[in-house]
Write the structure tokens for this entry.
Amino acid sequence: MGTYTHITVEHSFQDRIATVTLRRPEVHNAFNAEVVKDLTAAFTQLATEASLHGIILTGDGPSFSAGADINQMKASASFTQEQNLKDALYLADLLQTINVCPCPVIARVNGTAMGGGAGLVAVCDIAIASEKARFAFSEVKLGIAPAVISPYVIRKIGETNARVLFVTGERFSAARAQAMGLVHAVVPAEQLDDAVQKAVNELLSSAPKALRACKALALSVGAMNYESARQYTAETIAQLRIGAEGQEGLRAFLEKRKPAWVEPGE
């Protein structure tokens, strides 16, 4: 694992869970070029670690991520269109890297998630938020738009919610974020770690290759036509049934014991 300027990457549970933490609390974990570079590099590396059951993404301090750094925005105002295009494509690549990461990604939303920060939440598979968290797609207030994050956000919250929240830029609560599907659970701040741990425990009790197959199904099947989905889903289950995990899972079920991928004590 490489060294990073603005994030840390830690492993736990016999290297089966990784935690990626944004470490710019003084600016509410806002993005700059280095943050985008660090996150892309980290998730690219983590994608190759076959032993991972999951990755937690969170922020240091009271915020999850406030989106674009103010100094970055000042700099972009003097960029040419070509420079701004290049900068935006780096963010697009980051979001897609997290979105298609083979193992599940949990957003531990410890506080404010604005603009690109809310975009990070949208590319995670499981999003658990503190009830104190606040969200916004506030780009319109700055004369711009939540363009690069929009494909992922709209898939989560739907067109009807995007139409109002994109144009108003209004702040909204964690409860409203849950109601529209941006986050999956909202808990009191003091219970956030317990809620994340519960999700981690679920992942650790699931077979790692099967987890990845399940994520791939969720990402891809909805966009397939009937014949493509028919073939892909049939091939997926056939391969899993004859694989080592499928065989072990069935034996463990019949023998009324925990499967081999569950560590003792879990």
Remarks:
- Residues 208-254 form one domain.
- The mean pLDDT is 95.
